[in-house]
Predict the structure.
Amino acid sequence: MRNEREARGTLGAGEAPAPDPVDARIGARLAELRAEHGWSLGELAERSGVSRSTLSRVERAEVSPTAAFLNRLCHVYGRTMSQLLSEVESGPAPLVRAAEQPVWEDRASGFVRRSVSPPHAGLRGELVEGRLGAGAGIAYDRPPVPGLEQHLWVLDGTLEVTAGDVVHRLGTGDCLRLRVWGPTGFRCPGTVDARYVLAVVLP
């Protein structure tokens, strides 16, 4: 929406571009969660390690959140990233058509995330399709939920997954199974994009 309005030249003098709709919904939900906990921006900054100014700008949808940023807040609020993203979408349905699967992009890292099977009431697992561009990488300093069970299956390309001090190099068809307790990282070292499926199971 922001790009369309700018491209059409409809912005008036001094008028700020409209925020991205998804960014606006994420920001509003994050503001709601903070209010539900009764925390000020300063208190949330201390708990998450993210600056007050960044928290404020994301809540107001002035900037797009990164995957690492959302991961930090998910850890504080005790939910997975898929749970958070599902809360800003319409209610979950038993059948999720391909065209209805929420897609989110971390523009800073080039990471694209498709929620193939979003979190659903009464279910402990979910399926996520991830895509990392050649040479791109993302890092998380903590799991959103300690002890989170993950099964990562590479569909195309090569993916390096760092869990703690161990680096796993996965090729097409390889599967990595682990419980996440500490920092993790994902990197695409090849010359082509890496595409994978991530099955997540709550502990």
